[in-house]
Amino acid sequence: MTSAFRPTPASIPPPNAGLALRQPKGLPPNFQPLNPLQFILRAADIYPNKVALVHSDVKYPVSYTFAVWCQRIQNLAYALIQAGIKPGDRVAIIAPNSYSCKVSDAHHGVLAAKAVPCPINTRLKPAEVAYILEHSRSSIILVDHEFVHLLPQNLKVPVIVSNDTGRPGDPYENFLSSGRAFSQERGWAGLEYDADENSAATLCYTSGTTGRPKGVVTTLRGSYLAAIANAYESRIHLESTYLWILPMFHAAGWTFPWANVFGFATQICLRTVDNSLIWKHFLQSGVTHYCGAPTVQIGIVNHPSAKKLPRPISAIIAGAAPTASLIASLEQLGITPIHVYGLTLYGPFTRNFPQAAWANLSLQERSKIMARQGHPFATAQDARVVYPPKDGTDTLVDVPRDGKTVGEIVTRGNIVMKEYFRDPEATAKAFRGGSFNSGDLAVMHPDGAVAIVDRSKDIIISGGENASSLAIEQELASHPCVLEVAVVARNSFKWGERPHAFVTLRPTSIAKWKGRHGDFEKELKAHAKERLPGFACPEWVSIVSELPKTSTGKILKFDLRKIVAKL
Amino acid sequence: MTSAFRPTPASIPPPNAGLALRQPKGLPPNFQPLNPLQFILRAADIYPNKVALVHSDVKYPVSYTFAVWCQRIQNLAYALIQAGIKPGDRVAIIAPNSYSCKVSDAHHGVLAAKAVPCPINTRLKPAEVAYILEHSRSSIILVDHEFVHLLPQNLKVPVIVSNDTGRPGDPYENFLSSGRAFSQERGWAGLEYDADENSAATLCYTSGTTGRPKGVVTTLRGSYLAAIANAYESRIHLESTYLWILPMFHAAGWTFPWANVFGFATQICLRTVDNSLIWKHFLQSGVTHYCGAPTVQIGIVNHPSAKKLPRPISAIIAGAAPTASLIASLEQLGITPIHVYGLTLYGPFTRNFPQAAWANLSLQERSKIMARQGHPFATAQDARVVYPPKDGTDTLVDVPRDGKTVGEIVTRGNIVMKEYFRDPEATAKAFRGGSFNSGDLAVMHPDGAVAIVDRSKDIIISGGENASSLAIEQELASHPCVLEVAVVARNSFKWGERPHAFVTLRPTSIAKWKGRHGDFEKELKAHAKERLPGFACPEWVSIVSELPKTSTGKILKFDLRKIVAKL
């Protein structure tokens, strides 16, 4: 499909191109600062002619080998330096979810200029984009033509537009070409390797439901270690093909932009989460891996094109726990779920590690265990569940390993964020007690597995009992007609709070319940009563056509709470 | 087989044992010093009941789960501390090749006491062992009962003997029990995590053919990164079973003692390289991985028990390049060779990365390419081939990528040794020019792959031409009757030097050439003439029953040179 495409002359590396940056002075022979930029240089050295990046479902399809892509990355670094970008400067990127090749380029090319990529969520409103551009003090903006309207007027920094063509004449391509010209063929040796592995790697803003978004800064060291862990845990290798469904602006694509390169995998880019295209690639392009939140996965498994895969695909799931029904659907299609848990940091921090004994469990039992967030990831360190610190102290005390006592997840180690950008107060608060305070409420099971019960605001205090909206959702989702479900607290004169469930029906079940929503409500309540204590059974059930979601696909319970507050 | 065995009471961890060491004061929440000790704690946390270590082919077979093994490691750390071991002290280990569980314990338990394991080659002579014990200033010696005779008289440091029983009453088990008692159940929290990732991890002595052995010091950071790279490149995972054929005293087992634990693999120990036992485990124990030098691999593939394997096994090969004949034999049996190259440092530093295009090559052509040492390993950094530095300068200049120009391999990065112990002069010499000077002569191919031609002393200057003894050996090994071959320079009045080949015959070919060695010599010379330039053809061929080898299985060309010097 992309055979007619020829990379621009500026993308072709010279023969015998050196693939090492200039070493900073004074490094001992046995110490190299960790830096995920190293991966693309190594891939271009070992597998120069392997297809690295494919962007086929667009008007101007392109595909790049590692050698060509690596040259483009080098060009981008020089172009940024020519544009005045200094080490540590932020480079904003506003590009499709998911992906113009430009975002992929940036994860490597901006680092090669020793600058910091700041990928911005394309689903934000112009005012939010303006806030992030201002707060990050980005010195230059790389923007996809589709999202130019998100930019504020009167910008004082350069804007480079990509028309996503990969052809000469495209402003982004011209930018790369100018970088190549500016390099005067000094090659990689004309760029300097960052001497400090604790330098900032990326700046990603949270989609914070309350207050202003916060800028999460990661380090080169953390990104290197997290990317290798992702490649290892997901088993990404030379023969792997990764499909970009997860937005790369979400926690820098959970470090998969680097993990895939570390593993020499081929990456396929998609501009939008289009389930028809996703199934086309699943069935025709040899896809082996993808990442996505459960809500995205639900869309995939329920698409009309869904069918049993000829080869298994690994789905890395985070953002929320997969329900039993989702796990069953994935497995029936030949998709192996890998359930991980992270934050807007480096992506996965814990993983649900499968145990041999689970094979003997029923799907319901197994999926309950698989919904746990599990144990620390390969290069993560501690994930603890602790009591709220007592006033006046910072000492963190672990809750017992009883699977019942609720505490907060705190993490520490090399893949914990460096800081909130320009916000020492929020940083200090997040690191209170010497660990990162996640804000996620969880229990610790006897086997050391962490299981989220809810974020603190998601607990429903019903008749004096703490009901976990997550646990209720898990049970309601096991009803065969339920597609997605969200449960929030609704005020009750008698009980204080009581659960209110919002439900979408499976496409195949909509007709069945048409005009009989009351009957469905009764049936779902009976379903709940068999599985949940009385205080946790939903008092109200609303069937809706869709659930409100954040730009990263998380269900906006905040909006649902506003609805029930008016009832 | 081991079901009747019960671990000693001191090996049983208490319920809900904490699996984290005391953190050193002042560490930020987002920084954890890299340390391979972390792996066993994580394995015991996530897979406590999985079999970690099996030692079955002995009078007292044992097997330990990760939880039990982890407790033994903790006990060892406390026992060492009770014995007066301080951070940084060396702990000598003299144990079978390959393995009492004691050596496996030491790679983790000595680190847990913040001390440095110093595994000593069991094939050395008492005087050499005495030298290493003295030079390393080891503060305590863990020794297997079979090797007590290697110890000098009048030792001033404590010696703990293991009878390799795993049963109460064994002095080593008593030592562990005393550690448990000394711990007063403080558990892992009573031990401190090393604050400095650049602390020494291991001290391994070279088997130096000339001069005194040198003590190679590795770091915790390097060991962590090298172990993860080995797990990743070899694809060691939960379902893997690793068979210990490689001596663990050889470059600390190429970091596989940690790599296997990182991957949650089961490790099977063998006290000796017994090909019958090896094949028993290959066929009956679900072995998936092992490491070994070509000379060991030759023994394996030529053993009478050798047969096509039901499941593929990955063989990590280093120490010398595998010959075409070895590659063919391995592949026919279902063994996938992974050719890596390293030094007495952390094991693998480069790897021969397979290319899709090789599938179209003949076995002869493919194995020639597979014999190259290849490109830098996953977490390695630079492997260059450089000219000898000009006198008075330290600048390293790369040879052209022409596959012809011979230079020296130099390496740098995180998995390069820290230093030669107590030898600043040798360290400075090794690091001359800001890289580690390997002493291995090589060419750089156009694709960036390094290929060793020889160590400098192995070049034969024949008629003014440089003949690589390695290249000659590769060609002679392709003769169907040749088992192993070593080529050295022999003085020639006419040519200066000329190659002399020492050959062992395959067991199946011995009868064929009995009493006709002269005929075989003619045939082998003709075989060489078809494949090599005249100056590289052996002038003399000697059939021998076995080749002299170092304790680590390398052919002792030094001894062969002594033989030809007398001819």
TrEMBL record, chains A, B:
<dbReference type="GO" id="GO:0006631">
    <property type="term" value="P:fatty acid metabolic process"/>
</dbReference>
<dbReference type="Pfam" id="PF00501">
    <property type="entry name" value="AMP-binding"/>
</dbReference>
<keyword id="KW-0436">Ligase</keyword>
<dbReference type="GO" id="GO:0016874">
    <property type="term" value="F:ligase activity"/>
</dbReference>
<keyword id="KW-0276">Fatty acid metabolism</keyword>
<dbReference type="InterPro" id="IPR042099">
    <property type="entry name" value="ANL_N_sf"/>
</dbReference>
<dbReference type="Pfam" id="PF13193">
    <property type="entry name" value="AMP-binding_C"/>
</dbReference>
<dbReference type="InterPro" id="IPR000873">
    <property type="entry name" value="AMP-dep_synth/lig_dom"/>
</dbReference>
<comment type="similarity">
    <text>Belongs to the ATP-dependent AMP-binding enzyme family.</text>
</comment>
<dbReference type="InterPro" id="IPR020845">
    <property type="entry name" value="AMP-binding_CS"/>
</dbReference>
<dbReference type="InterPro" id="IPR025110">
    <property type="entry name" value="AMP-bd_C"/>
</dbReference>
<keyword id="KW-0443">Lipid metabolism</keyword>
<feature type="domain" description="AMP-dependent synthetase/ligase">
    <location>
        <begin position="42"/>
        <end position="421"/>
    </location>
</feature>
<feature type="domain" description="AMP-binding enzyme C-terminal">
    <location>
        <begin position="472"/>
        <end position="554"/>
    </location>
</feature>
<protein>
    <submittedName>
        <fullName>AMP-dependent synthetase and ligase</fullName>
    </submittedName>
</protein>
<dbReference type="InterPro" id="IPR045851">
    <property type="entry name" value="AMP-bd_C_sf"/>
</dbReference>
